[in-house]
Amino acid sequence: MSPRSAEANEELRGRSRERILAAALAVFAEKGFHDATVSEITARAGVSRGLLTYYFPGKQSLVDELLDRYLDEVTAVLDVTGGPDERLAAVIDGIVRTAATTVPVQRMALSLVVNPATHPRFAAAEARKEERVVALEDGLRELFAARGAEDPALEEVLLRSVLEGVIFKIAVYAEEYPVEAVRRRLHAMYDLPSPATDLFPGRPRPDRMRASRLPRA
C-alpha cells in the first residue's frame, strides 16, 4: 500500500479536528463548561485522548476555537453592500440566521456568560476579536447615521440589545421560538420593506401556533 500524500494527511487531520470540535460543542452545550469532561468529548468524537490533546491541549483551547469561529461569523454580518435600508435588513437577517442555525454554540456561549466563574473566558474571546467587534459597532453607528438617526450610538446599542435578546430566546427555546415572525417584526420596527421570503420556510408563525406553545420568560 502506498503512503498517503501530504494533501491526504492534511485532509485527514482536518476531519479529525472538526470531529473533535463538533463533539466538544455538543457536550459543552448539554453540560456547560465546568461539567463537561475530556473523556465525554473523546467518547462523543470517537477518538483517543491522545489525539484530542494533540490538537487541543485542553477544554479551554476547544472553547477558544469554538468562540473565535462564532464571533467571526457574527461580526461578518456587516460585510454587505447596498443602501442603508438594505444593509440594515441584511444585518438583522444575518444575526437571526446565525443564531437560529448555531443553537449549540449559543447555548455554550450562554453557559459561559451567565456563570461568573466562566464569564472571563467569554470576555477573553471578545478581547481577541476586539478589532472586529469594534468595527461591527462602529459600522452599525455609521449605518444609523446614514439613515438619519438623531442618536446613532443609542440606536446601535438598542439594536444590539434587542438582537441579543433574540439570540438568548433562540438558544433557550430553539424550534419553539417564532423566529420568522420576530424577524419580520424587527423589519417593521425599522420601517424596512417586509421580506419577500422566509428565512426558514415551514417554521410555524404565531398565527399558526397555539398560544400555549409560545415561549415564556
Please report the number of helical segments: 10
* Overall number of strands: 0
Order of SSEs: HHHHHHHHHH
Beta fraction = under 5%
Report the span from N to C terminus.
60 Å
Pick out the low-confidence regions: 207-217
As a whole number of angstroms, the C-alpha radius of gyration is: 20 Å
Portion in helices: over 70%
What brief labels describe this structure?
217 residues, mainly alpha, disordered C terminus
Care to describe what's here?
The chain has 217 residues and is an all-alpha fold. Helix content is 70%, strand content 0%. Helix 4 (59-75) crosses helix 7 (119-128), helix 5 runs antiparallel to helix 10 (179-189) and helix 6 (103-114) crosses helix 9. It is elongated and about 60 Å long.
Q: What can be said about this structure in brief?
A:
The protein has about 220 residues and is mostly helical. It is about 70% helix and about 0% strand. It has ten helices and no strands.
Write the layout of secondary structure elements.
Elements: H1 6-35, H2 38-45, H3 49-55, H4 59-75, H5 84-101, H6 103-114, H7 119-128, H8 130-146, H9 152-173, H10 179-189
